[in-house]
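Per reviewer request, we include the raw input and output of the structure prediction for the construct analysed in the revised manuscript.
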Amino acid sequence: MPRAEFEREVNRERADRYTKHYTAWNQFLVNLYGQITGKKSLRDIETGLKMQQSSWYHLGLVNAVRSTISYANSKRTYRLMESTFYNLLRKCRDITPRHKFRFKNPLAILDATVIELCLSLFSWAKFRKRKGALKLHTLLDLKGTIPSFLVVTDAKQHEVKVARNNFLPLSLDSILIIDKAYIDFQWLYGLKQQGVYFVTRAKENLKCRVIGQHQVNTGQGVIADEEIMLTGFYSQEKYPEKLRLVTYYDKEHKKTYQFLTNHFHLSSSTISQIYKARWEIEIFFKWIKQNLKIKTFLGTSKNAVLTQIWTAMIYYLLLAYIKYQTKYKYSLLYLTRIIKECLFRRADIIDLLNLSLKKVGRLRDPCYDLTLF
C-alpha cells in the first residue's frame, strides 16, 4: 500500500485535523482488517486486533477501540478512501493483462447493482415504501477485469442518468458494452462524437429503416447484419447518423437477439461475442457481494457505509495487484482465503503465493540471521 500517497491524500482532505491518536492511517488499517477477516461487528474487530497487539508497532497502529472506530467512520470523510482507490487504480492499470479479443481497442462494461439495506437502520437510503437500498454504478475494464470507475448513489437513481452526469474515463476508440437500460440516443450520440464505440441490446420497439446490409456467415449464428437509420420522431433527432443492427440466434437457449452498435468494421460474430462478454460484470458483482463486506455494514451513517464500500474496493484492487504483479496462478478467491488465515503469521510472501492445499504443511517461519547479544 503506497503510504506516502495515502498521507498526501490525508493532507489534501485535512482528514487528521483535531486528531490526537486515531489517525486516518489507523482508520484505514482497522477497516481493511475488517474486510480481510470478514468481521461482522466493531466488537469483533476490536477483540481480533487486541489479540494481535504485538504486531501493532510494525503496522503503525496505536488504537482499536470500537467507539473510536465508529466515531471516525461516521465523521471522517469517505472521500479519503475514494481518492486512495483511484491512486491504487493507476498502479494496477500498468500491470493488468489485455482482454481476450484479437482487436486492440480498450473494452469496458458499464452497469449497476443494488445493495439492499434495512430502512429502519438506514433511513437516509429510502428506496421503496418499506425498503432501503444503494446502487453501485461500475465501469469494469476488461483489461484485468478491474473497476476503473465507481459511483455510489441512492437506488432511485436511473443508470443512464448517472452515466450522463459523470465523465466516464474512456479513451479514444474504446468499446463500451451496455444493456438496454442505458439506451438514451442523445447520450449514445455524445459517445460517438467522443470517438467511443458502444455495443448494446436493441429494444423491441425500435423504429428504424434499413439502408444497407453486410455479408454474414450464418454458420456462426448471425442471421442478419444491417445498416439502419432511426425513424422515431425524437430518436432520429437525438441520433441523426446511421447505426448497425446485428441479429443473432442463440441455438443453446433458442432465442433471437438484436445488437445495436456504431462500430462498422468488426465482424458481426465479433459484435455478438463482445456483448456476450457483458456477463463479466455480473460475475464481478456476484464475487464482491459474496467475498467482500458490502452487504452488512459496521455503521449506519451514510459516511460509514460509503467508507466501508470504498475500503472493500481498495482491497479488491490490492488483491488484483498482487495477482498480476506476481503472476499468481490461482484464483482471487483462493488468494483471499490464504491472506485471511495467514494475515498476522510471520511468513514470506513468496511462500504464501506459492501455497496450495498440498503445500500447506511445508510453510515455515522465515529464517532470520542470528543476533549477537
